[in-house]
Automatic annotation (TrEMBL):
Residues 32-51 bind DNA. It comes from the Bacteria. It comes from Mesorhizobium metallidurans STM 2683. InterPro entries: Homeodomain-like_sf, HTH-type_TetR-like_transc_reg, HTH_TetR. Keywords: DNA-binding, Transcription, Transcription regulation. Residues 9-69 form the HTH tetR-type domain. It holds the Pfam family TetR_N. GO terms for molecular function: DNA-binding transcription factor activity; transcription cis-regulatory region binding. This is HTH tetR-type domain-containing protein.
Length: 206
């Protein structure tokens, strides 16, 4: 790598580091190119040269952030669950792995409604939801709850649920135990599915 290329790469890295820091503090739309330039100690034009739009800046930040946060991958679910055969232990291991990632991510994983309209954010949240649902399905493979039930249970292992429990003072271990217990309780007590019909209740006839 020649000196010019190395300088370009270092400047880009400084911009990304500054942006990640500011996005965690102020949000994506609360951060301006001027803010980034000041934090990175570069000219505003330099920021625009590297990242002309949010559609280029946000994915680059996300890629770097995920390298640092090390999210679990869908392919790692077998290793995460290991030799656990009991559904409770399998779910607990999934919860521990996901919640450890959420803890590492902290405010970097938070987003507001406006930010979720960005293509990169929609793609990331879709990926995360699908990954969580896949982990839950694999943990409950012996119970075979079906896709709808697995999706319903998965919300207990999503970042917003974890975040809410942490805000209320739960430790990570307690949050994992709570999510696991609630999932198993729901599976055990869920009502039988009813087929919706167009039948008019007797009280409404006439």
């Amino acid at each position: 790598m020649d000196s010019r290329t190395a300088t370009f790469a270092k400047t880009r890295q400084r911009i990304l580091d500054a942006t990640i820091k500011l996005h965690a503090r102020n949000g994506i739309f609360g951060t301006t190119w001027k803010d980034i330039a000041t934090e990175a100690d570069v000219a505003v034009g330099t920021v625009y040269k590297h990242f002309p739009t949010l559609d280029q800046l946000v994915p680059a930040c996300g890629e770097l952030l995920m390298e640092r946060l090390r999210p679990p991958s869908p392919e790692s679910v077998t290793e995460i669950i290991g030799g656990a055969r009991d559904s409770e232990e399998r779910l607990r291991r999934v919860a521990n792995e996901l919640f450890a990632f959420y803890h590492r991510g902290g405010r970097h994983l938070e987003s507001d409604l406006r930010e979720r309209e960005l293509p990169a954010m929609r793609e990331w949240e879709d990926y995360l939801r699908n990954m969580v649902a896949g982990f839950v399905r694999e943990a409950l493979v012996e119970d075979d709850p079906g896709d709808d039930a697995a999706q319903a249970i998965s919300f207990l292992f999503d970042f917003p649920t974890f975040n809410a429990m942490r805000i209320r003072g739960m430790t990570m271990d307690l949050a994992a135990e709570t999510a696991t217990g609630m999932a198993l309780c729901w599976l055990k007590e869920r009502p039988a599915e009813h087929v919706l019909t167009n039948t008019i209740p007797e009280a409404d006839k006439g």
